[in-house]
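TICKET: design request
STATUS: open
ATTACHED STRUCTURE:
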């Protein structure tokens, strides 16, 4: 079984990578190298991800300030979900967000972008 971990260098991703690599083949993808979404390389990048049986998305920019940071936090999970459906792949997508999405009083850019992602991938 092949498992792709997005956000493998962060707290959750690094622990998941270490634990799961004892039993499974792990592919680590760095979203900091994500091509622009309208470029030729974008679909190729996504193809590398959907080659797995399970995708675990832990990726996030905790201090988003660039368009790419906000794309990773709020739009990429939905793009990935849509791409999996488009390719008709039988992949388990696990999206791990932030406890911040449950705290409605938080209005910082990180929390707002993560709440937006949750709304887009719901269902």
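STATUS: resolved
RESOLUTION: sequence designed for all positions
ATTACHED SEQUENCE:
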């Amino acid at each position: 079984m092949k498992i792709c971990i997005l956000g493998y260098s962060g707290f959750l991703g690094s622990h998941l990578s270490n634990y799961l690599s004892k039993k499974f083949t792990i592919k680590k993808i760095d979203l900091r190298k994500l091509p622009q979404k309208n470029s030729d390389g974008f679909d190729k990048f996504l193809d590398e991800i959907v080659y797995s049986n399970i995708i675990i998305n832990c990726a996030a920019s905790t201090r988003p300030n660039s368009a790419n940071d906000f794309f990773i936090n709020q739009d990429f999970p939905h793009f990935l979900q849509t791409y999996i459906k488009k390719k008709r792949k039988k992949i388990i997508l696990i999206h791990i967000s932030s406890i911040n999405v449950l705290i409605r009083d938080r209005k910082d850019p990180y929390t707002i972008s993560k709440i937006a992602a949750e709304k887009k991938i719901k269902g």
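CLOSING REMARK: The longest helix spans residues 67-87. The CA atoms of residues 4 and 37 lie 20 Å apart.
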